[in-house]
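Sequence in, structure out.
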Amino acid sequence: MRIFSSATELREAVGQRLGASAWHTVSAQRIADFAEVTEDRQWIHLHAERASEGMFGGPIAHGFLTVSLLPAQLMETIHVDGVDLVINKGMDRLRFHQPVPVGARVRAVFELLVATERPLGFTDLQLGVTGEIDGKSEAAFTARMRMLLHVPEPALAG
């Protein structure tokens, strides 16, 4: 984990690779749980026998499941002292490059592309992110993740 002592120090890291998260196993149970929450119960995710005869050779994770791991993976990768709030603003240029098979391990690699100081203690971030699959050379996905970090401003002496 890379630790920044302040939002200012983080902003100085623009253009740098911030690091990679731990590996996370995408189990059949995780996929089934995601299918229930999202009501996306397609056979390519849930039916091993039918999926084994399909174009992917077996069941695969939902693309959005792999993307939904990003907030937790980012928290494993960096820490900014004093941050009391993180707001996800969205994803730009999200592209899925290859499916993630059941049982695969995935991680996220983050690069700080833009970090802009905003009023009231906020920092606006754009992170390049690559979703990697253990043992594969091609990424599962790439995207630009947008978020706001908040560090409370010190109280003014009265």
